Amino acid sequence: MKISRSSYFMLIALLLLILFMTINQYSIEISRQLFLPFIIIAIILSIIGSIVAIKDKEFIRIIPDERTKKIDRYAGYYSWWSTLLFISVFGFIADIKGLTIHQIILTIFTEMYLTFLIFHMYFYFKGEESS
Amino acid sequence: MKTRIKELRARYNLTQEDLAKKVGVRRETILFIEKGKYNPSLQLAHDIAKTLQTTIDDLFIFNEQ
Predict the structure, then answer these.
(1) What average pLDDT score do residues B35-57 get?
(2) 3-state DSSP helix/strand/coil % of chain B, to nearest 5
(3) First vs last Cα of chain A: how many Å apart?
(4) Does the beta carbon of B47 lie under 8 angstroms from any beta carbon of chain A?
C-alpha cells in the first residue's frame, strides 16, 4: 500500500463511491438524493488530488520510505482490530434487523476502508511524539 | 528528543529536499524528524549524520529523564 497526501483526496472520493453503494443497499430513496452531491464532491476531490500529485511530483509513482511504510503498518493494524470489534457488534445488529448479505458485506467493507483511511491520516499528520 | 538537523542543514546550505534525496527518504520524513515527531531508524539516523558530517550523538539530543 503506497499512500501519500495526494492519494487521500482520491481515496476519499473512492470512499464516497463505496458509501453510496452501501447506502443504496439500505435505501434507494436516500441514495437517489445523494447521487448528485456525491458525484460532484468525488469529481472535485479527484481534481484536487491530481493537482496535489502533480505539485508533489508523484502523479505516476509514489515514493515510499521507512516512515510511510511504518504508517501503513500502523493503520492496517488499528483498522484490523477496529473491524474485528465492529464485526462482533454489527453481527448482533445484523441478526436482529435481519440484514441481507449484501448489506452486511458492504457495511463491513465500508467500515474497514473508512477506519484504515482515518488511522492512516491520523498517523500521517500527527506523527509520533518523542518521549 | 530534539535534533540539530536544521542547524546543520543550514551550515551545509542544504534544503530538506536535498537532504531527503541524499538519504533516500521523502521530504516530509526530514520535516517530521526535525519537528521531533518521528523517530528515525538507526540506519536513517546514521545516514543523516554521515551526510551532515557529524555523529548520531551530536545530531540527536535526548531528554534525560
Answers:
(1) 92
(2) 60, 5, 35
(3) 29
(4) no
**DSSP letter, residue A59:** S
Grid coordinates of B23:
538519504
Nearest partner of A51 among A108, A10, A84, judged by Cα: A10
Interchain CB distance below 8 Å, B44 and A66: yes
**Contact by Cβ (8 Å): B45, B34:** no
Span A81-110, mean pLDDT? 92
Q: Do the chains contact at A128 and B37, CB–CB below 8 Å?
A: yes
Q: Would you call A65 and B36 a contact, using CB atoms and an 8 Å cutoff?
A: no
**Which amino acid, A99?**
L
Determine contact: B44 vs chain A, CB below 8 A.
Answer: yes
Is residue A129 predicted with pLDDT exceeding 70?
Answer: no
- B61 contacts chain A (CB < 8 A): no
What does the pLDDT read at residue A131? Answer: 45
pLDDT of A94 above 80? yes
User: What is the distance in angstroms between the Cα of B13 and the nearest Cα belonging to chain A?
Assistant: 22
Task: Band the pLDDT of B54: cuts 50, 70, 90.
Answer: very high
pLDDT at B65: 61
Interface TM-score (ipTM) > 0.90: no
Burial of A29: CB neighbours in 10 Å, binned 0-12, 13-18, 19+: exposed
Interchain CB distance below 8 Å, B24 and A65: yes
